[in-house]
Amino acid sequence: MTAAALGLLALACVAGAWRFTTARWAYRAPRTAILLWQALGVTWGLASTGALLSYALQPYDRGIVGGLAAFAYSAASGGYGPPGAYDMPHVLALIAGLSLLAVLVGVLVTAGFQTLRARRRHREMLALIARDDPGVPGVRVLDHPGAAAYCVPGLRSQVVISAGTLKLLSPDELAALLAHETAHVRERHDLVLLPFAALRRALPWSQIVRDAQDAVGLLIEMAADDRARRFCSPRRLATALLRFGTAGAIPTPTGTMGATGPAATVMLRVERLVTPRPALPRAVTAAALSLSAALITSTPLLWLLPH
After folding, report:
1. Are the CB atoms for 184 and 190 separated by under 8 Å?
2. For 25-53, how does the pLDDT look when each residue is reduced to its tens digit (9 = 90+)?
3. Which InterPro entries match (predicted)?
4. Rounded distance, CA 170 to CA 66, Å?
5. Which of 79, 110, 186, 303 could form a disulfide with 64 if both were Cys (CB 3.0 to 4.6 A apart)?
């Protein structure tokens, strides 16, 4: 029963992600949509592995967590378990479930380690080639003629722009762009995007995973735009994004977050800044938050529930 429920929940998450990638209401409430995306991702991972483990550990009749403990005890005691515990289908399901769980955790840890290493190297490089500018306090400036603006998140976060950006943008546009980058740093959007980047490494052939990562990336930029326009004119931020697009912005280094992206997503953000749509009704927002909470809590409960 638990295995079937977890399997259905995993399929529901896949179907929900497929529909959610084209949901335009998310642009009206990016933070709420990001939370729902996170709930879908975590629930899918736990439900997929849980469905396999639940079936594999059914003979122990203790649920997933209790069944894993019972299996470890029986294996350490010489392989004596309840009838059917070591049948081929149950053994294969156990191997598949543990392997999938190891892959998901492994790619997340690996992606995090590689990102931290890339950021450390980039900070070391910035210490050698970047400079401070009294006109933009707290920002590191690269002497490069191209347009570049990005942040290096972390405990020692930095916002970096190029000399070409200083020449390209007006003071108001520059302030708007820096507010956008500061939003990335303060809200730790890099941590939001990391699990989706890791999942893409684990399932590079999945179109749904690629679309999900792109959707979350766009929502993160929109969330940063929303925070930035508390301190600046939305039109100034929109013109800054357009200037970057026409100037051919330099790609952001690995492990950092930039202000711009593909031309199509930049135009969506500009349109949203220039002609903002009304906020979502409170009932819709409450429904989305309730669904996120239900997804986050349901799977751990099913892991703990005895068969």
Report:
1. yes
2. 889 999 999 999 999 999 999 999 999 98
3. Beta-lactam_resp_regulator (IPR052173), Peptidase_M48 (IPR001915)
4. 62
5. 303
